[in-house]
Design brief:
Alpha-lytic protease prodomain-like; Alpha-Beta Plaits; 2 domains; 4-stranded mixed β-sheet; elongated; disordered C terminus
Length: 307
């Protein structure tokens, strides 16, 4: 009968120039710290310090990826990407998670090998450099926290930097135990704990990232609940062929066929407005496409279990 379109452009991303400058500063700090900690880890023989250095290097790389993804995401929709380039940040998240997991697998391998062949470790180098690392992690966490409003990617970056700070604290404690008691095995334990914590964080974020890329139903939304709510609107006989997915981290798209018992276009327009208002108010869906059918002409056979 007719189709209705409603497009929301409230992306909710914080792409201020100051945010980009903050990311560049965070990248520089993490690269400096990576070099310092890796060198210190080689000199002191500390695997946990090398682990923290690799973790900070992965932070620098992930922040670089996030920086370029934010640049790409700013591009306006065009004939090649009609929905825009916002998903660049989702792809960046998947790359970063994969990078984290690979780094952690390597760290676990090195930690196990260190058990087989223990080495003497210089504790004070660990404490000094890990303390510097803690300061850098806290500064980076502050930068990403300021950028995290209405931006899931940057909230994730903030939590990631916060976990780095916790890892640095673990390395500092390992250094202290080595200085006081010569417990070299604490260094290996700290490495395994840091690697385990990072993997845990990564696997918590992985399902959501994959769901976004696979255009799965957004978290917190039930297709059945949406269908039931829409079918309660006066004039709506049935909703079928429903599709709902994330355009990006902020925008949700919805499309469906709506069977109505209205005979005039004006009545259909009223129903359409009510449906879109309900989708927006109750489910936060700003982008919706509705195809209207008269109940006599509706082609969806109930036996097909159309949804």
């Amino acid at each position: 009968m007719s189709s209705g379109h409603h497009h929301g452009h409230h992306h909710g991303h914080n792409h201020a120039p100051g945010g980009d400058r903050g990311l560049i500063a965070a990248i520089g700090l993490n690269l400096f710290l990576t070099i310092a900690q890796f060198t210190g880890g080689i000199v002191s023989g500390s695997l946990s310090l090398i682990a923290d250095a690799l973790h900070n290097f992965s932070d620098a790389v992930s922040l670089c990826i996030a920086f370029f993804a934010r640049k790409i995401a700013k591009k306006q929709p065009d004939e090649f990407k009609t929905f825009g380039y916002q998903r660049a940040e989702i792809i960046a998240a998947l790359i970063n998670l994969t990078l984290l997991i690979v780094v952690c697998v390597y760290l676990v391998y090195e930690a196990i090998w260190r058990i087989v062949e223990p080495e003497v470790i210089t504790g004070w180098i660990i404490v000094v450099l890990a303390s510097v690392g803690l300061i850098v992690d806290l500064i980076t966490a502050f930068i990403t926290y300021r950028m995290s409003e209405n931006n899931v990617n940057m909230k994730t970056a903030f939590l990631h930097n916060l976990s780095d700070a916790l890892a640095s604290i673990g390395v500092i404690l390992a250094g202290i135990f080595i200085i006081l008691y010569q417990w070299y095995w604490v260094d290996t334990l700290a490495t395994l704990l840091v690697a385990g914590f990072i993997v845990w964080q990564a696997f918590k974020l992985l399902p959501k990232t994959i769901n976004l890329l696979m255009e799965g139903t957004p978290d917190g939304l039930s297709l059945k609940d949406i269908k039931h709510s829409l079918e309660e609107i006066e004039g709506v006989a049935r909703i079928h062929h429903i599709h709902i997915w994330n355009l990006d981290e902020q925008r949700i798209a919805f499309e469906a066929h709506v069977v109505v018992n209205a005979n005039e276009l004006k009545q259909v327009e009223v129903i359409k407005d009510r449906l879109k208002e309900l989708l927006n108010r109750t489910f936060g869906i700003l982008h919706s496409t509705l195809e209207f059918e008269h109940y006599i002409d509706a082609s969806c056979d109930e036996s097909l279990k159309c949804i």
